[in-house]
Amino acid sequence: MNDISSQPLLGTNGIIFMGVYLLSLIGIGFAGRVAQKEKTLADFYLAGRGMGVFVLFLTLYATQYSGNTLIGFAGKAYRTGFSSLVTVLFMSSIIGAYLLYAPKLFRLSKKYNFITIGDFIQHRYKSNRLTITISILAIVALGNYILTNLKAIGFIVTATTGGVIPFAEGIILLSLIMVIYETLGGMRSVAWTDVIQGILLMLGVFLIFYTIQTQYGGLDVAETTLKKIRPDFYDALTPKELMTWGSTMVIVFFGISVYPHAIQRIYAAKNEHTLKRSFQIMVFMPLVTTLFMVYVGIVGVSKFPGLDRAGSETVTLLLLNDLSQHIPWISGLLILFISAAVAAVMSTVDSALLAVSSLATQDFYRRVRPNSSQRKLTYIGKFISWLVMALAVVLAIKLPQTIWKLFEIKLELLCQIAPAIFLGVHMKNLSGKAVFYGIIVGTGIALIIMVGHWVYPLIPSKPLGIHGGVWGLMANGIVIWFIQKKRTHE
Questions:
Q1: How far apart, in whole angstroms, are the C-alpha atoms of residue 45 and residue 40?
Q2: What is the Cα–Cα distance from 360 to 369, expressed in whole angstroms?
Q3: Which run of H or E residues covers position 342?
Q4: Which residues of 325-337 are buried (b: 16+ CB within 10 A; e: fewer)?
Q5: 339 neighbors 364 (Cβ within 8 angstroms)
Q6: Mean pLDDT, all residues of the chain
Q7: Is 48 among the domain residues?
């Protein structure tokens, strides 16, 4: 029997199609450059604040459902079984979180011309130290997000070519393409490529679900095997596991909903009606994206039992490769799915890269050089994009963490930003001092728990089943409440 993992997913025609697709993204980058109306940060990073429903929905969708969806969620389902179905609820809850603050934040952004999350923080709290702290946290979390998806790119390219293009070289190649079209046209190029990538993602996820259901028999057939090799999938959840469920819900609800690149898309909407309509459509996406990939991961256990933690993150690719060995006509579906997988990863990385670039330029460089022209600031932003991508590529190749673990770390940090935004848009008397010390304490506790586990593995990464980021968020909220109460009584 051939080693499935060494067989290329795509033949010559498929690789040619992928090459043409990737080159077309650079062409879209040039189109975005031509469409620029002015050499300003607002035009480059927010596409002139003119996104309609169709483009805004697809860029939100392609950005939110990333390499973690196609690789990480399936891998998580492979390891934990039916309990991972709760991720569908997690992803649905995010839209509710957006609707709590996004409409009001959009109105403020239109009035005061915000470009980054830091612009809102500075306007709202008039605190340089708070703005800088939040911008640093956002950049670190986004850097982690880029690492997550670059690792997914490495897995996909290696599987696609049967190892002809190794993990590291695959990351370098696609990273170069992304940074080229992102720096050519900014948000316009990113959003336009997201339209293509979002459509490919929806088609790809649906078709792999349909194919596995029809060719493998889905869960109806897999269940017999699962009960023998993974009876733990059918066990009732322990109180600690239920706590972890709730904890994950918290970090997803508060962490994903304050993605800096998602906030930039809120700023870029044409009007408030466009923004709300896009979110209304997004509500249904977990049912046809997250649910399908969790299903794929669980079925994968019956076909490829015994994969280690790193191997579990290739389960989707292993299933596709297995199908290609036995069903010749499936090659067309493979091309579409691999294109969708690559598209999902690239749409997320380019968005995160654009957000990092804007934060570094607007919230740091512009403070040092306040008299810089808009043209110069735009060029500085492009240079930062290249620098950040180079660093991320090196770290993605070297760091051993799984995609899901990187996903959790990012959200645990972003959670600490959430009170500044959720409370800040609604509470006029909330002080910057309270928010600042809340973030410092919350982030400190989250880091102590995370680092403590890395240094001494006997220290639990989730005390009582609760993420370090949630412990930090609780402390964050208590500090804000205490300082705010004290301030009220003075």
A1: 8
A2: 12
A3: helix 331-358
A4: eeeeebbebbbbb
A5: no
A6: 84
A7: yes
Alpha helices in 283-330 (DSSP H): 285-288, 290-303, 309-312, 315-326
The answer to whether residue 273 is domain-embedded is yes
Is there a domain that residue 30 lies in? Answer: yes
Q: Residues near 383 by Cβ (< 8 Å), separated by ≥ 6?
A: none
Q: Does the structure show a pLDDT above 60 at 481? A: yes
pLDDT, tens digit, 9 for 90 and up, residues 305-339: 988 877 887 788 788 778 777 777 666 767 777 77
Mean pLDDT of 23-36: 84
The answer to whether residue 411 sits within a structural domain is no
Instruction: Say if residue 468 is in the same domain as residue 371.
Output: no
Same domain, 267 and 365: yes
Would the CA dihedral through 149, 152, 154, 156 be positive or negative?
negative
How many domains does the structure of the chain reveal? 2
Provide the domain limits for residue 339: 4-404
Q: Are residues 168 and 55 in the same domain?
A: yes
Highest mean pLDDT among 69-73, 154-158, 249-253: 249-253
In 3-state terms, what secondary structure has residue 16?
Answer: helix
Statement: residue 2 has pLDDT above 60: no
